[in-house]
Every structure is written in C-alpha cells, then in structure tokens.
Amino acid sequence: MLIRKPSDIRSSEITPRGVYLNRRKFLAGTAAAGAAALAGRAAAVLLAPDAAAADGAKLNVTVKSPFSTTEKQTSLQDITHYNNYYEFGTDKYSPARNAQALRTRPWKVKVDGEVLKPRTFDVDDLIKLAPLEERIYRHRCVEGWSIVVPWNGYPLSVLINEVQPTSKAKFVEFVTDLDLGVMSGAREPVLDWPYREGLRLDEAMNPLTLLCFGLYGEELPKQDGAPVRTVIPWKYGFKSCKSIVHIRFAEKQPATAWNTANAHEYGFYSNVNPEVDHPRWSQATERRLGEFFKRKTLLFNGYGDQVAALYAGMDLRKFY
Amino acid sequence: MTTERFIRLSKPVVFLACLVPLGLLARKGIEGRLGANPIEVITHSTGDWTLIFLCITLAVTPLRRFLRLPWLVRYRRMAGLFAFFYALLHLLTFVVLDKFFDWHAMVLDVYKRPFITAGFTAFVLLVPLAVTSTAGMIRRLGGRRWQLLHRLVYVSALAGVIHYYWLVKADVTLPLRYAAVVGFLLACRVALYFADRRRSAPAAPAYAERTSP
C-alpha cells in the first residue's frame, strides 16, 4: 500500500470557512434548483443557512489528507440535523435538539486493558497528540443513506502507539458516555447501554481509522459525537462510536451494541458491502442526502484499496 | 338541526379535515422544511396517516355501538377511502420517489423483504374495498356479501401494523402503539359479537341494522 506523505499546508492557504461555505451554498443552490419541484431542496438550502447549525470553537486543522474524496460535501445543516444517536432519541431529528444538554468539558477518556501504558486523557490533551487533519470521507449508514463529511482528527494509530498495546491485544473496544441525566433515549431499553463498539486491532491501526474531534474545521457538534468519536469510513456508520469515554484493548472480541441487540442483522465487521444485504433491506444502493437518484453502493464504501487486505481470505458473507 | 342535516353539512368539513395532513406535508415541502431526507419524511408521513385512517375507520363501529350513535357509520366510507388515499400516496412515494420506477428492485423487494411483502399485502387488500365502496357496488354485491368482503380491512390493518413493526431497527414503540390500537378495535368486535349472540339467543335474524344501507 502506497501512502503519500501529506504535504504541509499553511493555514493561510486554506480557504476561509465563510467563503468556502458561500461557494458551497451557491453550488448546492444551483444543483438543487433542478430538483426543487420534486423535493423543495432549493428552498431548504436558501432558507436554512449552514451557519445556523453549529457554533463550535475553531480547530487548528493543519493537514489536508490524501485520503480525502473530492465529492461534493454534505451541508453542515444536514450533517447536524439528521443523526442516529439513540441516546438522544431514536428518530433522526431529536439528537440535534436533545444532545445540546450534554456537557463535553471537562471530559476524560480512559484508555486501558491490554496496554503497557494505560492512561486517562483529558480530551484537551488528547486532541494535541497529533496535528489535526481534514479527512473528507464518504459515510454510509446501514439504513441506506450516505453523506460526505469533512472530519477533523488524526489517525487512531497515534493514540494506540502512545499507549503501546501488549502482545495479547487483539481488539479495541470503544464505550460511549452514559449520562442518563441528559440522554433521555438511553433511559429506554432500546439497546444495551452504554453504547459499545469494537474493532480488530489491525482495523483500528489502519491509516483510514480516525480519532475525530471536529468537522468543517470546528469542534464536533454534540449530535455528531462531541467531544471525541471514531470514524471508520469503510464500515457502516454505527461502527463508529460517539462521545467516547473509554477505550479498552482486549484479547477477545468485545460485545458490541448492535451486534448484541440483533446479531443476525448486525455483524461485528459490518463492512459496507453491496453484495451482502441486510436481512430486511437491500444494501446494493444508497441515497446520498441531497440527491434524488440513488447511487450504487461500493464495496468497502469505495475504500477497498486501503482495507481489502485486512479481510483477505475471509468469507465476507459469513463475516458480515 | 336534524341529524340528517348535520351529516350533510359536516361531510364537506370532514372531507377537508382529512386532507389537512397532506396539506401540511405539501406546505413543509414547498417551504423546504422536510429536512435532510425529504423522501423518507414523505414516506413516513403517508404511512403514518394510512394507519391512522385505518384506525379511525375501524373505530366507527365500536363507537357507534357503545355510544349509541348509529349515524356515525355515515362517515365510515370517507374514512376508509382516505385510508386508501394515503396508502396509495405511500405506495407512489415508494415507486416514484424512492425507487424511481426500478421495477426489478421493487419486485425483488416485495418478494424478499418481509416488511415490504406485508405492506404491499395491506395495500392490495384495500383495493377491492375501495372499488366496491360505491352504493351501486353494495347493491350489486348484496349487503351480506359486501360486508364479508369488507372484513378484509381487518387483515389489511394487521398487515399494515406488521409492516411497520418489521421495518424499524430497534425502537418498536410506535409500531406497538398502532398494534395496541388495532388490537383493541378488533377486540371490541369480538366483544360485540358475543354480546349480540347472547341477546338474540334463540332464532332471531342476526340483527338487520348492519345490513341496511
């Protein structure tokens, strides 16, 4: 696998966010005009300015990643108002309202298990572990929709190398915060709370796997998993873990939330795969938010060059 | 005001009221307030209103019997036809907006996806009911046969609830709420059936009220 070393880009060379958003708004408006009669998208773009979505603190994002796609990015409005974050309600629109009550400072992330240097990080220290990159990734939900998000973070491998897994560490488990005071959704037994996800260690070490602190150059909006989450672009969205408080290295495959809820429908791997249908719906196509026609879903969400080797010799139908 | 006059005057009002959900949805669409995934919102809204109108239709008989308001039945056809109307919009949303006439994918869906099989069944069962909803058709079929045919609405409502239950990922609260309502309304019929049987115990024709126009 060839990984180009990303060149340093001075912050002065990056288009200011306002200009950038205006340009995007113009493009979005133009593109949407055609579909307006059908779905009223143009009005949505004009009436719901991106700026309304978030007012998070700016991040010092210094690296543009060669892994970024050049596809049209989903608007901040849509990224922040169409969320699966069951702790804040099971419909897509509740998290934008309910997650605002989550307190994300102070925030500790405990890293332990099969590591030589277990450590509890304050999130403000964790974010300084490596230069923040912009990674524009496709993000595919198991439900059949997708978005393109300019995430900000650094490879999870940086953190893993920092704590030095022992030879026994084969898996990494991530645990989301469980604050029943504000997470009204988690008071319902919809999933076995707290939300847990997991990766094989080599998946976690893959350069694509991101420890993510922001998007669009600002701190993560709370409904998108503030203050720190993972992003694993070749897997269905639920494999990413939001608002992480605990990262544990383990010898055995950890129990994960959706797999525990319904193993038949949500496998541990859950790699994006158009050939392997969800038992109740097809995964062959997806609707990119903002588009009318469905597009074909790509194996590993189009990241096969980077990750296919991880699964060499595995029957992807069996290990779905 | 006589009951007859009240019914005649209120029917257009009820008709317009039944169009309000569609109107609100259309307004949201025009104002661009359908959110990030407008097609999903349209799908869910039309599906919800189909179930709501099915419940309203099924509520007419228990209500008129328990409250002794026989004239309520005069609104039943309208409620039933609006259930069909919203079901049709729901299906058209699937065919046009969601799948954009990809017949191959749709046939596979109906065949392979239990929740779509159930939903499609629920819709298909409503078609003969809508077709035979006119006074002429009731006359041609005869009250008894017509009534028997229209019991299909029970199956359709159940299939509709199952359709909803099978499609959600984990939170079955809403489908269960519909299931409870439909279950209750069907249970009312069982109760009414036994009450009638006890009252008309020896001989006596199974009450005539129901078959009269």
Task: Note the main attributes of this structure.
heterodimer; A: 320 residues; alpha+beta; 8-stranded mixed sheet; 13 strands; B: 213 residues; mainly alpha; 9 helices; disordered C terminus
Which helices and strands, and how do they pair?
The complex is a heterodimer of chains A (320) and B (213).
Chain A: H1 17-39, H2 41-47, E1 61-64, H3 76-80, H4 94-98, E2 108-113, E3 119-122, H5 123-126, E4 132-140, E5 145-155, H6 156-163, E6 171-176, E7 196-200, H7 201-205, E8 210-215, E9 218-219, E10 229-231, E11 244-250, H8 257-261, E12 285-288, E13 295-296, H9 304-307
Parallel strand pairs in A: 1-4, 2-11, 5-12
Antiparallel strand pairs in A: 2-3, 4-5, 5-8, 6-7, 6-11, 8-9, 8-10, 12-13
Chain B: H1 3-30, H2 38-66, H3 76-98, H4 103-112, H5 114-131, H6 135-141, H7 143-150, H8 152-167, H9 173-199
Helix pairs in contact in B: 1-2, 2-3, 2-8, 2-9, 3-5, 4-5, 5-8, 6-7, 8-9
Describe this structure in words.
The complex is a heterodimer of chains A (320) and B (213). With 320 residues, chain A is α+β, with helices and mostly antiparallel strands. Chain A has helices spanning 17-39, 41-47, 76-80, 94-98, 123-126, 156-163, 201-205, 257-261, 304-307, and strands spanning 61-64, 108-113, 119-122, 132-140, 145-155, 171-176, 196-200, 210-215, 218-219, 229-231, 244-250, 285-288, 295-296. In chain A, strands 1, 4, 5, 8, 9, 10, 12 and 13 form an eight-stranded mixed sheet that branches. Chain A has a five-stranded mixed sheet with strand order 3-2-11-6-7. Chain A is globular and about 45 Å long. Chain B is mainly α and 213 residues long. In chain B, helix 3 (76-98) packs across helix 5 and helix 6 (135-141) packs across helix 7 (143-150). The A-B interface holds A 38-48, 77-78, 81-82, 86, 90, 92-93, 143, 145, 188, 190-191, 258, 261-262, 277, 280-282, 284-285, 287, 289-290, 292-294 and B 28-40, 97, 99-100, 105, 108-109, 112-115, 166-167, 169-171, 173.
